[in-house]
Design a protein that fits this description.
Oligomer: single chain
Strand content: 15-25%
Strand order of the largest sheet: 2-1-3-4-5-13
CATH superfamily of the largest domain: Response regulator
CATH architecture of the largest domain: 3-Layer(aba) Sandwich
Helix content: 40-55%
Length: 355
């Protein structure tokens, strides 16, 4: 496990500063560049343990034939830079892309949140594109019209023409719920967001929420009052710390509170932590908290957060590999699913079968 002191030493700040940045302390006065350095370093060190570095080096073999040395690709991110820093999981996906591009000697141009997409000289110069996250259908249509290969990382556009790489969040949700059930939890709440389809908010449409609903319906145990969903103007703003805080307060207002809360991502779980702590609720003892992503800060929360590890950096690396395959002539579509792994920590009881 990476430590706060290791991150602090790499960036040149104090351990307390690292802790405050990773815990989203809004009272901390720090430059955006330093904040970015801390978050990216935390994500990179958390993934790049010496053992993982050695495995990656030994496992990776350059493609043959090689691409031209001046080859440039575009990375189109569904988040703005400040939004990405608010969700380190996507920092990890981007770092994975950047590392693998370095392996392939690919030049990178970045476009955030659709900026400069129309008539973009960046897209014109790029031989292919990698999209991080979810794009509006109109933007996908624009990318299709370029005639260049487009790879989606952490999103399946449900279109046969595009390669994509992601984890199965529905399967991961069911695995968490099965674990909680075997650990004795009976009243499990859910904090998440609406799915946005063509600018329309769809209740219970998001993958994790849909899996949660179906899991309970199969047991004739669905209780709509246990679902607290935030609704924002854009998908990127649905799963935020602030939303987790507000929705946790909603669940705490129930006459019969849940004995566990499953959050759609770690940011929301951090917000839920704050709401529970303000209400004098002992996390794990009174109400368990569980989530998704396994961003670096989850190890340092009190208590450490149980969360489903979604391999952001390998997703980014695989997206680059898929694009290179396309550039080298592959003419059929690939949809790659990378497995998740649960990290059971002290924010809930462990299932009997947990390692």
């Amino acid at each position: 496990m990476v430590t706060l002191s290791e991150i602090a030493k790499a960036v040149g700040v104090s351990s307390s500063t690292v802790s405050r940045v990773l815990n989203y302390d809004q009272t901390l006065s720090i430059s955006e560049s330093k904040r970015q350095a801390i978050i990216e370093t935390a994500e990179a060190l958390n993934y790049e343990t010496p053992r993982n570095r050695n495995r990656r080096t030994l496992a990776f073999e350059p493609f043959s034939p090689s691409l031209p040395g001046s080859t440039s690709i575009a990375i189109l991110h569904f988040l703005k830079p400040d939004e990405e820093l608010s969700d380190p999981y996507y920092v990890g996906v981007r770092l994975g892309i950047e590392r693998r591009c370095h392996d392939h000697k690919l030049e990178i141009a970045k476009i955030f949140n659709g900026d400069e997409l129309r008539d973009s000289s960046v897209l014109q110069a790029a031989v292919g594109m990698i999209v991080i996250g979810k794009l509006h259908p109109s933007m996908i249509d624009e990318l299709t019209q370029t005639g260049k290969p487009v790879i989606f990382a952490d999103f399946n556009p449900q279109l046969d023409a595009f390669d994509c790489v992601l984890s199965d969040l529905g399967k991961a949700t069911r695995a968490i719920l099965d674990g909680l059930e075997s650990a004795g939890y009976q009243r499990i709440g859910f904090i998440g967001g609406y799915e946005l389809l063509d600018d329309q908010a769809v209740m219970y449409g998001e993958q994790r929420c849909k899996a949660y609903v179906e899991w309970h319906e199969r047991r004739n145990a669905f209780d709509a009052s246990l679902i607290a969903l935030g609704q924002a103007e854009t998908y990127a703003r649905n799963l935020r710390l602030e939303t987790g805080y507000e929705q946790a307060r909603q669940l705490l207002s129930l006459h019969k509170r849940p004995d566990a809360i499953l959050c759609a991502n770690d940011n929301m779980a951090i917000g839920a932590y704050r709401a529970l702590q303000e209400a004098g609720v002992a996390i794990a003892h009174d109400i368990a908290v569980i989530s998704f992503n396994d961003i670096p800060v989850t190890q340092f929360l009190n208590p450490p957060l149980s969360t489903m590890h979604i391999p952001g950096e390998p997703i980014g690396e695989t997206a680059v590999d898929l694009l290179v395959e396309r550039l080298l002539g592959r003419d059929y579509t690939k949809h790659v699913t990378i497995p998740t792994q649960m990290r059971w920590r002290d924010s809930c009881r462990r299932p009997p079968t947990a390692e």
